[in-house]
Write a structure and sequence with these properties.
Layout (H helix, E strand, L loop, with lengths): L8 H20 L18 E8 L2 E7 L7 H12 L16 E8 L3 E2 L5 H7 L6 E6 L2 E5 L10 H11 L12 E5 L1 E6 L9
Antiparallel strand pairs: 1-2, 1-3, 3-8, 4-7, 5-6, 5-7
Helix pairs in contact: 1-2
Length: about 200
């Protein structure tokens, strides 16, 4: 059984804190001390993204689109990997006091029956749908949170096409579209500084 986007608020807060604790442990070189009861829904397989921001500036975002391991492990793995997002400089001790940590828990992705870019744009639910585009080995996604920055469906799709390396404004012949929803949980700054 897999976890979907709906968790209890307490479980969501725990996941966000767990992601923050994983970042702190990596920055300080200390072990991550976290226990999850075996009967917790967080022990079921789940897919998540962890987003790290400092003063509203992205510092890392890494995630899983498919549920392949227990959700709590997926969150820890993604938090640590987000610290070294290859698109950005690594997260440092100096980032820690102002670091906002967001965990997005994803629902299972479902195919979108869209034979054209226009059909996809018309069928999207702005503010609600995350979108995956894939073509063989190439894949790109935007979380539902990206709608805040790209509220127009055409812009949203074009930006995702560009992100995946396809030409914007077109619909490549073999591209498949899938949609998912997510629920976001936050562990916000400020935080105490890490002493040397």
């Amino acid at each position: 059984m897999t976890v979907t986007a709906a968790l209890s608020p307490a479980d969501g807060r725990y996941l966000a804190r767990l992601a923050a604790d994983a970042v702190h442990a990596r920055l300080t070189g200390s072990p991550l001390a976290a226990t999850v009861p075996l009967d917790s829904p967080l022990c079921r397989d789940g897919a998540s993204f962890v987003t790290l921001e400092r003063a509203g500036v992205l510092r890392g975002c890494v995630g899983s689109l498919e549920a392949v391991q227990p959700l709590h492990r997926d969150v820890v793995r993604n938090a640590v990997q987000a610290m070294r997002d290859p698109r950005l400089p690594p997260v440092t001790v100096e980032d820690w006091p102002g670091l906002d940590v967001k965990v997005s828990v994803l629902s299972r992705a479902e195919p979108v029956a869209a034979k054209s870019r226009a059909a996809l744009v018309a069928g999207l639910r702005p503010g609600e749908d995350g979108l995956i585009l894939r073509d063989g080995a190439r894949r790109a996604t935007f979380l539902p949170a990206v709608w805040v920055k790209l509220p127009d469906a055409e812009q949203f799709v074009d930006a995702l096409l560009r992100k995946g390396g396809w030409p914007a404004g077109e619909w490549p012949a073999r591209v498949e579209a899938l949609r998912y929803t997510s629920t976001e949980y936050h562990d916000a700054a400020p935080r105490p500084e890490i002493s040397a």
